[in-house]
Specification:
By secondary structure, this protein is an alpha+beta fold. It has a domain of 250 residues: Alpha/Beta hydrolase fold, catalytic domain (Rossmann fold), CATH 3.40.50.1820. The protein is 16% helix and 34% strand. Helix 1 runs antiparallel to helix 13. The longest helix is centred in the C-terminal third of the chain and has 20 residues. The chain is globular and about 70 Å long. The relative contact order is 0.09. It comes from Haloactinospora alba. One of its GO terms (molecular function) is dipeptidyl-peptidase activity. InterPro entries: AB_hydrolase_fold, Peptidase_S9_cat, Peptidase_S9B_N, Serine_Prot_S9B/DPPIV.
């Protein structure tokens, strides 16, 4: 099987890999999702007994008869925001005691008992379609969203009629009201804030904290497919830069037998000053009293405030505030609290250069590390991820045990080299996943008694994902230029030192929140395939990418074009000076999303350096992208017109002198097709030839097998033809 076909069929080699781990309170059992093989897109729910190391399938969609998915629109949108490319059981929840798990398949609700010798998935009679079910802490109820309303069903209640088992918690008068939904994350929260949920159970199961989203003021855009003119398309509420956002509120709703007996309590903060609801949930004080927590952010994103609230009275208290002259970064995993009620937070270091992990007002991680996320808080233990100083391509886990006054890195058993790690922690049991340069895919182990770091019990979880049929990546990494740009050069496996020069292909993402230069073999598989076709492939993480410093990330504030392009050129020239095999007379660049923007930017503004570009799903006019992302870097377009103009590609169209291929999914609701259409129209108006590849029915993720395979082959052909005679341009 060719690499393009294999990559498409395996969904970029993710199928068959274990993920979405949950750990039992006693640390003796883990649940996870995994399909049965590297080309099987249907994920099952699995359990592993750590005493015996045995795995067991708890729920298989094929056995249930729900493998052929018929997803409700809300679930399709949710998966698009999650960039979920698999099928089957893609998410699940468990109760606190690890006695039950609940999940949805094709809009239907299922649960499985985790106790007993013969677990069997059972359906619950509910109002359908079901979206994002959430099991209560005691496991006796499931909350879910259907028709824009939050509903609750009792797992053990008697009776067969749906009406007898379910009741609506959200406002019944708003069911079906256009623009109003309860219990779901709004577009901005899911796309830009990594908040994919809109409801949370109270720790004692007595109430739900629920979002109410009203997007009636948000502009409506139509996403249609010209290949199917009989299809009217679908309308989306898209909050473009400078325009209205959805109005998001929070309410505590007691769980009562009937909705009429439940009186909701609104949680009100200054939503005019802090309109973005970033995080929400619950915590319990030392006396066990449930308390609402939430973080909210200003529209200009220079202020982020943590609030606590009394769920009974609705009184809100300002607990902690962060400010920044550029923007306050939303950090994963925070806020959280230790067992004694101390705030766990990621904030700026005293010199402002990095981010540190704080418990209370005390930093607890190395002063020179770059803290990335809080992974888990388990009683007095905090597990976070960080990059050691000067090594942004490495991601390690760091365990802080406040009771034992321990702070140390968590090492993967038997691994000495650098890598990229992720994990979970509960009940003194650690799930640890590792990718590195020596291994195809990832390895997962479960470590008992993790706080002692003695690893008296280590169990490996099988990874059924396929490895690519490629030579081992031939990668050289270094820091390019005076500013130290993380860079990697990927060469053909057959290339010998001193042999003739190779055409160069830059393969960056180059923008915020993503790195390509990592100490992980899977990060280079696509680049290695292009290298095997005869290219020297250069990957560089310039300013704006994470992992280096706060100043490095914020260097793009007010200008999304100049720094990122300059750093690609600097890395290219630095690589040419270090390695004698780069032909600077034949240089191309390819990328997707922000990388697509960067690729088009390169040939438009630096035709002296770049001779061809493939731009996939590019942002071409930042006025067409969403509020939270775009305004973070460029401000409001009404106030910063010059910044938007300088970062746009449209005014550069008349200057195109090189070959440019634009690729875009017609069903993309993140970077809508209008971006490519407007740039193409500007190029046509200027008489500049170019290639447009519209993808019918494809969203921002090209996961359909034939499309994903041929996209790589078409790009390769275009790049080869374009560089055969780079002196000839449009």
């Amino acid at each position: 099987m060719s690499f393009p076909r294999q990559q498409a069929r395996t969904r970029r080699f993710t199928l068959g890999a274990p993920r979405a781990f949950q750990i039992s309170p006693n640390g003796q059992r883990v649940l996870f999702l995994r399909s049965r093989g590297g080309t099987d897109p249907v994920a099952c729910l699995w359990s592993m007994d750590l005493e015996t190391g045995t795995e067991q399938v708890l729920a298989d969609p094929r056995a249930i008869g729900a493998a052929d998915e018929d997803l409700p629109p809300e679930e399709r949108a949710r998966r698009e925001r999650l960039r979920e490319s698999g099928g089957g059981i893609v998410s699940y929840t468990v109760d606190e005691g690890f006695t039950r798990a609940a999940f949805a398949l094709s809009g239907r609700l299922y649960y499985v008992d985790l106790v007993g010798d013969d677990p069997k998935p059972r359906g619950l009679p509910v109002w359908e379609p079901v979206v994002d079910p959430l099991l209560s802490p005691a496991g006796d109820r499931v909350a879910y969203v259907s028709g824009g309303a939050v509903c609750v069903v009792s797992v053990d209640s008697s009776g067969t009629r749906v009406e007898e088992r379910n009741h609506v918690l959200s406002d019944p008068d708003e069911v079906g009201v256009p623009g109003v939904t309860w219990g779901l994350a709004d577009f901005i929260a899911a796309e830009e804030m990594d908040r994919y949920r809109g409801m949370w159970w109270a720790p004692d199961g007595s109430a739900l904290l629920v979002t109410r989203v009203d997007d009636s003021a948000v502009a409506r855009w139509t996403v249609s497919d010209p290949a199917n003119p009989e299809d009217p398309g679908h309308t989306i509420a898209y909050p473009a830069a400078g325009a209205a956002n959805a109005d998001v509120r929070l309410a505590v709703v007691p769980v009562a037998p009937r909705s009429g007996e439940a009186k909701r309590q609104w949680i009100e903060w200054d939503r005019d000053a802090l309109p973005y609801l970033v995080r929400a949930g619950w915590t319990s004080g030392p006396d066990g009293t449930p308390t609402v927590i939430l973080t909210a952010q200003s529209r200009d994103q220079r202020t982020l405030t943590l609030f606590t609230a009394d769920p009974v009275t609705g009184l809100v208290f300002d607990t902690h505030t962060e400010t920044d002259d550029a923007w306050v970064e939303i950090m994963p995993g925070v806020p959280d609290f230790t067992r004694d009620g101390s705030l766990v937070w990621i904030g700026r270091s005293s010199d402002g250069a990095r981010r540190e992990l704080y418990v209370g007002d005390r930093p607890v991680t190395p002063s020179d590390a770059y803290v990335r996320a809080v992974v888990d808080v388990d009683g007095p233990r905090v597990l976070c991820s960080l990059s050691p100083a000067g090594r942004p391509g490495e991601v390690t886990l760091w365990l802080v045990d406040l009771a034992e006054h321990l702070s140390a890195p968590v090492e993967f058993p038997g691994a000495d080299a650098a890598g990229v790690h992720a994990g979970r922690l509960r009940g003194d049991t650690l799930v640890l996943q590792r990718r590195d340069m020596d291994t195809d895919g990832s390895r997962t182990v479960v470590i008992r008694e993790a706080s002692t770091l003695t690893r008296q019990s280590v169990t490996e979880v099988a990874n059924l994902a396929q490895a690519p049929e490629l030579p081992e990546p031939n990668v050289r990494t270094w820091f390019a230029g005076e500013s130290g740009i993380p860079a990697a050069l990927v060469l053909p496996s057959w290339h010998e030192e001193g042999s003739g020069p190779l055409p160069v292909l830059l393969d960056p993402y180059g923008g915020p929140h993503a790195q390509r230069v990592l100490q992980a073999r899977p990060a280079y598989w696509g680049s290695q395939w292009f290298a095997e076709q005869g290219f020297a492939v250069l990957v560089a993480d310039g300013r704006g990418t994470p992992g280096v410093s706060v100043a490095w990330e914020q260097a793009i504030h007010g200008d999304l074009a100049t720094p990122v392009l300059e750093d690609q050129v600097t890395a290219l020239h630095d690589a040419a000076g270090r390695f004698g095999c780069l032909d600077l007379d034949r240089v191309a660049i390819r990328g997707w999303s922000f990388g697509g923007y960067l690729a088009a930017l390169a040939v438009l503004r630096r035709p002296d350096v770049f001779h061809a570009a493939v731009a996939g799903a590019p942002v071409t006019d930042w006025r067409l992208y969403d509020t939270h992302y775009t305004e973070r870097y460029l401000g409001l377009p009404q106030e910063e017109a010059a910044a938007y103009r300088e970062s746009s590609l449209l005014d550069d169209a008349a200057g195109l002198r090189r070959r440019l291929m634009l690729i875009h999914g017609l069903a993309d609701d993140n970077v809508v097709f209008a971006h490519t259409q407007r740039l193409s129209a500007a190029l046509v108006a200027a008489g500049r030839p170019h290639t447009v590849l519209p993808l019918s029915g494809i969203t921002h993720m090209a996961t359909e097998e034939a499309t994903a395979e041929n996209l790589l082959l078409l790009q390769l052909r275009f790049l080869r033809e374009s560089l055969e005679d780079p002196s000839t341009g449009p």
